[in-house]
Amino acid sequence: MILFFGRTDDAPLTRAIGAARDAGLRHLVIDQARTARYDLVVGTDALDARLTVEGTRVPLGEVSAVYARPLEPPDDADPAARARAAAFQEWFVGWLDTAPAVVVNRPRAMGSNASKPYQAQLIGRCGFAVPETLVSDDPEEILAFRARHGRIVYKSVSAIRSVVTEFTAADENRLALVRGLPTQFQAYVPGQDVRVHVVGTDTYAAAVDSDAIDYRYPGRDGRSVRLAPYDLPPETARRCVELAAALGLPLAGVDLRRTPDGSWVCFEVNPMPAYSYYEAHTGLPIASALVAHLAGRGAAVPVGV
User: Fold this and answer.
1) Domain range spanning residue 64?
2) Which one of 98, 121, 248, 279 has the largest count of C-beta atoms within 10 Å of its C-beta?
3) What's the rounded Cα separation, in Å, for the pair 207 and 202?
């Protein structure tokens, strides 16, 4: 039995559910919008641990794999329902860290992205180059960093998504606002973005063609973005797989940039990637690969694009 946990309006989850349905795999969907109606029983007796969803009772011992994308649940006007849903999610997500099953991804493994500077150190240990980085709330230190590197960008140091933005004269004029708010600054790296999704030991790469500083938000700069499947060099693919494994992530979104001299720089690793965006624009079979991994068939899915 494969469990899917998350919101049914979340494209990565729904694509994976569809792939499991198409493959004829036995599965159960745990919809975050309805968890107040579900039951989860755990205890010292593993034989009695069970999950009840829409009248379907599943012993947790029969769960072979879980794909979880725990997002904020929809608001519920009933305080009791909100409390019950919160308790269910807390217990279920906690169980994922110890479940004797394939879990994509275990919550404890997703913590490295909570601090981007910390994760960058882990990335460097795995053999990837990372951008020159400064985390500071000192305007003079930041200006010296820019003088040293010329073009620089800035973004959040935490797991909270932020727009990668180039530092400009306008930012210099308001730099005093950064005091007390440590911000991550990086040397600008020229080249082409390549997003690599690691699924088990397989990689699915997409080249990104865009002039935007942050291609995820091209409209902010009046830019466009185009995606296409990319033939990743074997050595780079191997490093991506090893990096994801070192972070404990069966599914990972690795953000790379290939510089004009042919070297590779890694910016970060997303432990809960929204792969559906890349799949929709390239045809890369990421959802099918994910479901194959959950079913224990990691090498069975070709890159049919």
Assistant:
1) 2-104
2) 279
3) 17
pLDDT tens for each residue of 251-263 = 999 999 999 999 9
- Whole-model pTM: value is 0.90
Domain presence at residue 301 = no
> What pLDDT is stored for residue 45 in this prediction?
60
Are 203 and 166 in the same domain?
no
Total domains, the chain: 3
| Cα 108 to Cα 114: distance, rounded to the nearest angstrom | 11
Mean pLDDT, range 94-123, rounded to an integer: 93
Mention every residue, 6+ apart, whose C-beta is less than 8 A from residue 256: 128, 193, 194, 195, 196, 236, 240, 264, 265, 266, 267
The CATH number covering residue 177 comes to 3.30.1490
Same domain, 198 and 77: no
Question: Residues 116, 256: one domain?
Answer: yes
Confidence of residue 39 (pLDDT cuts 50, 70, 90): confident
